[in-house]
Amino acid sequence: MENQNLLNEINKRRTFAIISHPDAGKTTITEKVLLFGHAIQTAGTVKGRGSDHHAKSDWMQMEQERGISVTTSVMQFPYADCIVNLLDTPGHEDFSEDTYRTLTAVDSCLMVIDAAKGVEARTRKLMEVTRLRDTPILTFMNKLDRDTRDPMELLDEVEDELKIACAPITWPIGCGKEFKGVYHIQRDEIILYKSGQGHTIQERRVIEGLDNPQVEQAIGSALAQSLREELELVIGASNEFDEELFLAGELTPVFFGTALGNFGVDHMLDGLTEWAPAPKPRQTDLGEVTAQDAKFSGFIFKIQANMDPKHRDRIAFMRVVSGEYTKGMKMHHVRLGKGVSISDAVTFMAGDRSAAERAIAGDIIGLHNHGTIQIGDTFTQGDAFKFAGIPNFAPEMFRRIRLKDPLKQKQLQKGLIQLSEEGAVQVFRPLRNNDLIVGAVGVLQFDVVVHRLKTEYKVEAIYEAIHIATARWCACQDSRKLDEFQRKASEHLALDGADNLTYLAPTMVNLNLAIERHPDIEFFKTREH
Ligand code: G4P
Fold it and tell me: Domain Tr-type G spans what residues (predicted)?
């Protein structure tokens, strides 16, 4: 019985993240979703507006706001019969590695598109990442209260550019000042929009049936007539929703609305709770682990410095993959090969950090990390397997870090290695000299690193330009050939924070030559933890 209860609880979990281009409305939707989850009382309380628009000089403030972003990193709330876990992803593209890893911890994604703009660059990039695991995608076309592009054209663009079939679940009636609401194709209902209700949960104003004469009264006969004609075309020309294709990541249900006006977000949530998958299995080096496996297991996908700078500890975010965490339980830390008792994990119910008594497959818990936990670490109930698939990406920007006070070399190295374990930056130590080189995906990361070295490690450092274009992780089964490669290419080789051999190429031409010259060596663009 007990077991059946646990299985029922697991099946209620929906763990998802929002992917979008900055400004499409992710923050606004998050706010409305929390409103529906009764996690907040009025919209406008989640976080400061425009957190994606930080200019470089604003990042200190962003540091301060991290206090808030730790608690909003994971938000758990009930909706319908489900318990929903929404994982926030940093909006700023300089932190996109964090975003990528967060996407390994969810079972589905909501793609938000600004309906005036259509598919944008970052959405494209993030969709590529969700493809790696065939993550099911729901789509929300946002900002219908403004003049938008033709909805059919938007669906075509998603299909062409993102290679995913679209199945409209709702269809907009007008847009901008003329936005009247949506037709729910599946339920054969018209749901009417009223402007100026964005801060509250609106009562749904529903007209049953497209042919209902009330439609004329509500939106006028001309619009009613053209809506019926349009829908005939739309339903004929577009895909029907197919749950199997959705679960395979090949088809996305599409909803229309306005996050600001809090209209349509609940239709999307209905779809999420009804169709999005319960916690999915994860691959390990010893086979698959399913959510229903009785024994507890989980992996770390993100580490974040604590909001309170006086406490040096960090929070390691764990996705529970199977079984159940209970307070005080003993876990096996696979990489260290030893048992640890976890008595003070935190959960994120209703956006608030609170001590976790219990968490189950699909949930996220936060572990206090005093330097022993790294991104990618696996925790189990005694088993020695490791979860696969949490990537490090080859950085695209490099700087040499120099000390103001040369006597602090040791602290600097320690600080950088810890920051790299946390995923804040990647560190490389060339084989031929004592330089410390940091690599990042976005330039803002360098400022953050220098600031954190100063505040957390008491090391004053500066960074300077260095002539490196890209990095590749190197591997070869044949150790003799690897040795030879290390000798011949030593000028360009370095060890990363976890002692993996890396080739630092001054130019792409140089990299291509190295790949040609050393056919036995594999060069990787990503490294799994
Ligand atoms: P993001 O997290 O994806 O970056 O987007 P965010 O929610 O912050 O929204 C970006 C801007 O778009 C905000 O404007 C927000 O109010 C607006 N917005 C979001 N949803 C809608 C919608 O449904 N309709 C309309 N008309 N606007 C919407 P802002 O705070 O004024 O900032 P900005 O315009 O200066 O960027």
Answer: 11-280
